[in-house]
Amino acid sequence: MKEINMEVIHDAAHRLLFDMSESGYEMLLKEFDVLIQQMETIGKIEGLEDYEPMTFPFDCTVDVLREDIPETPLPRDEALKNAGNVQDHQIKLPKVVL
Amino acid sequence: MNFEAIIGLEIHVEMKTASKMFSGSPNTFTREPNTCVTPFDMAYPGTMPRVNKQAVINAIRVANALHMEIDPLVRFDRKNYFYSDLPKGFQITQQFHPIGKEGYLEILGKDGELKRIGIERIHMEEDTCKQLHFADYSLLDYNRAGVPLVEIVSKPDLRNGTEAMRYVEAIRNIVLYSGTSDGKMEEGSLRCDVNVSIRPYGSKGFGTKVELKNLNSTKNIELALDYEIARQTACLLSNREIAQETRRYDEASGKTVLMRVKTDAVDYKYFPEPNIAPIQLSMEFVQNAIDTCPELYDSKLARYLQNGLSQTDAEILLSNIDMASFFEEATVKDPKLSKIIANFLIVEINAYLNKNGIAMNTLGLNPETLSDIAAFQDAGYTHKQCADILNYVLENGGSAEEARLAKHIEKQSDNASEVLAFVTGVLDANPQSIEDFKAGKDRAKGFLIGQVMKAAKGKVNPAAVAKVMDEELAKR
Amino acid sequence: MSYLDLSIREIHQALVEKKTTPLELAKEALERAKANNDNAFEMLLEEEAILEASKLVEPEEDNLLWGIPYCLKDNFSTKGFETTASSNVLNGYVPLFDATVVSKLKEKKCVLIGKTTLDELAMGGTGTTGHKGITFNPYDPSHTHMVGGSSCGSAAVVAAGIVPFALGSDTGDSVRKPASYAGLVGMKPTWGRISRYGLFPFAPSLDHVGFFTRDVEDSAILLEALSGRDDMDSTSSFRPVDSYLPKEKSLKGKRIAVLSEIVDAISNKEVRASFDRAVKAMEDEGAIIDYVKFGLQDLEAIYATYIVISCAEATSNDANLDGIKFGAYHGGKTYREVMSNARTEGFSHLIKRRFIIGSFALMRENVDVLFTRAQKVRAKITARVNEILKDHDTIFLPAAPSPAPLLSASSDALSDEYLIADNHLALGNFAGLPSVTVPLSFVDGLPIGVNFMCRAFEEKELYNLASAFEKISGLAGLSTVSPKEARL
Prior knowledge:
B: 15 helices
């Protein structure tokens, strides 16, 4: 596992596109201590490896798919009305450099 | 030292379904931005994915054409990353359980030998929104967001640009003829990411991979790869290191140009998509998807050859799916006419399309009419006469028979005795012309043939007349 | 006391007999809402409620929900009304569509009075972290105890008698825990029973639509109205919707499992004593009580497992909150700046910490020992729950180890104590099982509740048990407006 330190969690925050105050990071470091220790304890639970990782609470497999029938799209102005910056019926951003 | 290139391709194909991969938004190409959008496509909170049945059917068909193992339990995963064109902040894809794996495709290698290219996986996913870039800003159009994609990942079995080109051509033919996609590289509905590295012959390791982008035609794939392989070889021979980077193909110079150096690989933090319950496809469903798949390129090619077409003609027809389907409709009535019909399509109709700058699918010609015109030729009308009829129909519409009557075209006889009777009659009536001909005036012969055609009211074949005329003149 | 304080069936009767009208009910609910000072509302829909209620003239006799006023947690999408999930990141966001449950209640002609507060993005259990500040417990006028969360506002408005029911969401215990603190019936049915379309996701594999009512029958009426397959949520179940109204209210012969480690972990003597009285009373009614050992190690794993799975899913679900398409826009010189300004300004500390934990759990180097391991623990724990329910009709437990804790003692930091009696309701989310909290008694004037959990899709059985229990406790119809005497 990746070692957890200030640099790593700052980097993680940066990759998640936000920043927070130093006190936030300090608190988070402490929380990681708690969590990692608990997860390590959990890792020692016997027989854990016999279980398949579970995404759904129970088997909810279906045999249906959506029919390929187009639905009415949103009126364009409505689709864009929540956006902070719109120009020419499109959302405008500072130039995205490829 | 000799090097060999290791080439792997990732091909993204936009499907031409009626609706998007996970939403009911219309999936239509339009220039009006943000007119094909539902709340899911813009990642409005609380919206949830709903898997498109036709997209699954298409993926099964392509997987089957690529001889892949199909997983009937359809599952999806999230690929998490932030980018301006990714509305949800993740893309729904099939990382852990692709719908198809372990397939292959056979292509003609550079040496003309059949070569088997392994295919690692095919999976379904969704497209991102389209960004239009201007001098100091970008605009986002969500029409493309959520368009169904299949991604086809080859094994690193390709060795040169020509093979890569043929591989892409073969994939394009499959997605095109299975009805999955229009497969247009120039419009981005078929997109290639190419990875290439080189290693000394006999070595088992892999060299540093370079990724090539901006490959918008199969020809460019060939050219870019051949250039890049030469560049990498030159690098190694002069002891320069090959950097892990992304390069762009510059069409004007025919060179690959550095776009960016790759930093550490992005961690996409994949995990199973909790909003899509696993979908168990029945064996019947899978089989039905395969059985109802439109006939694919290779099968059509074989059939065309069987119907007497040359390899070249068959390939020309099949290079335009609309022309091929027109051809098939036109040959339903009488498959014996295949060759004649193919010829009209390849020569006269192509010329007409080019002259008028229109596409095959907007041509206002009824396939049955072409079949009727071909039947005229089969019944003895000359190719020239039939071409006249065809051109008349193309310009004016109507049936083949109407055009024939309008153009006063009659079947010409090449019955020897009939022709001989006309020729003898004309020669007998024009002794002066015979003398002129004998005196070396070639024009006299043309006059005599004209007289024959006139007397026969055009019902005799000019070629047959010319032949008999020569024989008879020689006798006089 | 007014018609508003009756059960849904009784209000319905009064409406049908035209003793009251939807408009009268809506007006009274609005008045109570305005008089309330528990900070439970994101938004009161006064004009809209009055307009909608005044359209309801001819009572629909076969529709028990006709004209009933209600409130909605502000993480359900409401077309045309700002919905923020109590997060600044969504300030100004006006949804373009109604959540399926909102549409269903509209069809039933329920009248939406207001949208209620929550812990920011439903990620919390204290009712203190929303952008409007603390939501208080109606049973505590001194405002020193929490009402719990994350569905704090919805719990408060039903407990305060403002409306007969309110919708919430439950990812770990966000309906059933505050129901315990607020003396309410708090229900979360089987995963997939109610469509989640339009519910802002926290952790979809654990998320449930839930609701607060003042008695069990009201809860059953609602479940019937909200359940069913919805093509917009492809995880919603195709199983036909039952009639959930409790009929057989006898506990005779019912096999009831009590998880002994959890009961033993309760240090509050009054809670324990009250729970023991409840067990005794149920035995007296003919129930067979089994104290079952679940496995302490597994119970202690619940909390970390829950944190890892829910935070991992949340960091992904909330990646759409980038200020580009909707929500508060803060500008920026580059596209990344636009996104990071929106996220930096929009999320509180707590949320950011949870996102970092979630993304860390999914990183390539960590995923095996964090996320995947948590998913395996979930599988193991779920298997154990289902094993117990094979031999028992229900698992019965105190819903919380104490009455509502002091706000001063609340913390949203991860705790290193193994508070198994505080976290066990997440079992119902891990296994997706129907689970309902029902009032038990009062401790120091504050309500406490018990919880029943049954097999998947056995909501009918669950309500029968809860209804039988309600007869014993005598607390049906409880609110601060209509106080009741505790028996247990």
